[in-house]
Amino acid sequence: MAFDLHHQLQEIYADDSGECEVTVGASRVDVLRDGVVYEIQTNGLYQIRRKIACLLDDWPVVIVHPVARKTVFVYCEGDPPTEARRRTGPRTGSVLDAFAETVSVAKLLAHPNLSLELPLIDVEDIRRRTTDEEKERIRKRRKRRRNSLPDWTTINRRLITVHEVIRLDIPADGVQLLPNELPDEFTSRMLGEAIRLSAWRARQVSYTLRHMGSIEQVRRTKDGIWYRRCERKTDA
């Protein structure tokens, strides 16, 4: 079942002229407005990869992947669940968090019919206590993993506000996300140090931007793969 966040974003993108839950070809899409398909995915972009690939030859498509800048956790007790307390998460999200997911669709991003929109939002994460039955199901799925079982389960997510929307249409848009202090040629490690990301997350950013055409690989050394920004192409 989709959370309220998904439906709220559908309404925003449909506006007055669009339609929600429309059949386009063989696919059911979130929003169709002015001849453009908007597919909203709050997590797991890999789940819509095939669907997007099938649409691209015939339709302009915008993948909408919101990034939580601030999360307010709402803890509920009782049946039906009633709010007992709330707290604001300590972490502040940024647009670069989206690149943990964009690796799933990176090879599609260079397609001229595909754009990516990253709304920076504040959300409520509504939780209730995890039941013993749910913990048992989780334990069976994990098999031999000994991670602690969750005491709370998310039952809904709601939009509080949209701060801004980052749109990536062309390779030059991706270049704008790179910090100015990066040298002309750089590695993922250097990128991570410049934008304070882990080495793994920095590689995800590099991977996505390379497939998008924003950066290109120039060489490989013992320090890793070196990249440089792609020059903006202009019409002759």
Q: Can you describe this structure?
A:
The chain is α/β, with parallel strands linked by helices and 236 residues long. It has 2 domains: 4-169, 3-Layer(aba) Sandwich (Trna Endonuclease, Chain: A, domain 1), CATH 3.40.1350; 171-236, Winged helix-like DNA-binding domain superfamily/Winged helix DNA-binding domain (Arc Repressor Mutant, subunit A, Orthogonal Bundle). The chain contains 7 helices and 11 strands. The strands form 2 sheets. Strands 1, 2, 3, 4, 5, 6, 7 and 8 form an 8-stranded mixed sheet that branches. Strands 9-11-10 form a 3-stranded antiparallel sheet. A hairpin with a 2-residue loop joins strand 2 (27-33) and strand 3 (36-40). Helix 6 (188-195) packs across helix 7. The protein is globular and about 60 Å long. The mean pLDDT is 90.
Looking at this protein, list some descriptive labels:
Arc Repressor Mutant, subunit A; single chain; Trna Endonuclease, Chain: A, domain 1; 236 residues; 3-stranded antiparallel β-sheet; alpha/beta; 2 domains
